[in-house]
Amino acid sequence: MNHARAERAELSDLLVRLGPDAPTLCEGWTAFDLAAHLVLRERRLDAAPGIALAPLAGYTARVQESLKADRGFGGLVELVRSGPGGVYGLVPGLDSAVNTMEMFVHHEDLRRAQRVWEPRELPADLEELFWKRVRAGRGLFLRRAPVGVVLHRIGGGVALGGAKEGPKVEVTGPASELLLFCFGRQAHARVSLNGDEGSVARLMDASLGV
């Protein structure tokens, strides 16, 4: 089982255990909404562009609500569990290439929105994969950072992103936590920050990620 499938399975189990009304870190979304989002992005390619493109977001939201009404929470969770769906299940390697980060981030969106949680100890090869993705994608993830960002990976590795001029903030943590930080989960990533107070505050409030 690859890491994308493992995260998918654990996320599906957690969705069932917590139920449809459980909170998530995605603003305004419950576990029900998260399950519908995951099904939509894999199985409704007509609506998927609205996830990232604001002019199409209205249609995407309507499709997401229709999936909830048509499938119900249990049906959506089973579609998530049975994936990868759509093109992700047809193109060899695409599931691992795209869904490993997607499933991990949304798994943590659900875990870390609960009252009690602790970071998981992830396999070393998964941490290494996340570091490669952070380094490769830092220009995209940190493009809206208002200050320079110096990412320090615990265990070795440095990557630069954000604003090229002006003050910089050092962000230190394991690769998985740096990934969550760069995906806009700053307040919930277990990282340490070093920089002047104003720059740190601006970075924490920035809209990071894709």
Automatic annotation (TrEMBL):
It holds the Pfam family MDMPI_N. The lineage of its organism: Bacteria, Bacillati, Actinomycetota, Actinomycetes, Streptosporangiales. Residues 5-48 form the Mycothiol-dependent maleylpyruvate isomerase metal-binding domain. One of its GO terms (molecular function) is metal ion binding. It comes from Planomonospora sphaerica. This is TIGR03085 family protein.
